[in-house]
Amino acid sequence: MKHKFVHSLFIIILFLSSCNSAPEKKEDTPIQAAAEKTSGKFQYDMGKPEKKWTLPNDLLEISGIAWIDNNHLLAIEDIRPDLYLLRLDNSVVVEKKTPFHETSKQKFDIEDVTVVGNTAYALYSHGKIFKVDNWRDKPDVKEISTFLSKDNNTEGICFDPNFNTLLVSCKNASDVEDEKKSTRAVYKYDLKGGSLEPTPYLLIHKKDISKMGGEKLDFYPSAIAVHPKTNDIYILSTKGTKALAQYTHAGELKAVQLLDANLLPQPEGICFSPEGVMYISTEGKHGSPAAIYQFNSK
To answer: 275: how many CB neighbours lie within 10 A of its CB?
Structure first.
C-alpha cells in the first residue's frame, strides 16, 4: 500500500512540474526577423513580375521611366538627352524619339524622367533639371540649375502630387552637415516657387536600411516614385546592393526588399500607374538586353 502511494505521489509531482515548465522559445535570427517584418508590409512580390518587355539596343542603358497611360511609358537613357515614347504591346515599340538638348559629350548622364501634365522633367546627374513643355508636339526646353552637383550624383526624380513638388534623390553625398558619408538625401523642388528647398525632405540612413534588410547593406538611390494609393515613397538602389526601400510619406522606413540581380541586374527606373501597378526598368548587362517589368500588388 505504501509503495503504491509513493508511486502515485511521484507521478503527480512529474505532472505538476511539466505544467509549470514552458517550452523553450527559439529566438528568430536578425535575418528571419527582418524577413517577417518586410514581407508583412511589402505590397509586391518582386520575384514574380506580371509581364516583361525586352528593349531595343537604343535603350540598352535605360535609366528612367514615367507612366503616360496603360499602353505607354516615357523613357530616357543615360547617353543621349532624348525622350522615348514607348508603346507596350506584346513587344516594345518606340513611337517617338524627341531630342531636348544639344551636347557634344559622348555620354551625357541623363538619369531619370517624370511627367506632370504636358511637361516632362529630365534629371541630369550634375543636379540640373530640364523642363520640357509640350514634349509631345513642339518641345520648349528650359534648363533649371540647383545647388546640387555631380558630387551629389542626382539620379532619381518624380512628381509628388501631395505637395505639387518634384522629389530629387541623390545617389552619393547628401551635403548635410554632421551626417555620415553613407547617408543619402531626397530634396523637394517646389514647382510653384521654382526652387529646390535647402533642407532635405527625407534622409536615408544606412543603419536603418541594414536593420530592416537583416544584413549590412549599402544603399545608392537610382530612382524614386510616389505610390498613387498609399502615398508611400519607393526608392530603388543599385550599384552593389539591388534593393527597393519603402518609406511612408512622412519619411519613416516601412520595408526593404532585396532584389534578384539575375532578374534586375541594374534597376534604374520606377513608376506607378494610377491604380498602383508598378513598372521597373533595368539596364542591359553582361550581354543581356535592357528590360521593363510590370509588378501587380498582392
So the answer is: 10
* Residue 178 DSSP label: T
**Cell digits for 294?**
510590370
| pLDDT of 1 above 80 | no
- Helix (H) / strand (E) containing 167: strand 165-170
Tell me phi and psi for residue 193, to 5 degrees.
-80, -20
**Can you give the residue ranges of every domain in the chain?**
27-295
The reported pLDDT for the residue numbered 127 is: 95
Q: How many other C-beta atoms can be found within 10 angstroms of the C-beta atom of residue 46?
A: 20
* 288, amino acid identity: S
Could you give the dihedral angle defined by the CA atoms of residues 225, 237, 63 and 114, in that order, rounded to the nearest 10 degrees? 10
- Whether this prediction's pTM lies above 0.90 is answered by no
- In CATH, 27-295 is 3.30.930.10: no
Q: Rounded to whole angstroms, how far apart are CA atoms 210 and 188?
A: 25
Helix (H) or strand (E) holding 256: strand 253-258
The mean pLDDT of 253-271, rounded to a whole number, is 94
Is the distance from CB of 298 to CB of 45 less than 8 angstroms?
A: yes
Amino acid of residue 59: L
Compute how many other C-beta atoms are within 10 angstroms of the C-beta atom of residue 162: 9
Asked if 184 contacts 221 with a C-beta cutoff of 8 angstroms, the reply is yes
DSSP letter at 44? B
Cell reading at 141: 526646353
Lowest mean pLDDT among 197-201, 272-276, 285-289: 285-289
Residue pair 289/55 in contact (Cβ under 8 Å)? The answer is yes
Q: What angle do CA 151, 157, 161 make, to 5 degrees?
A: 140
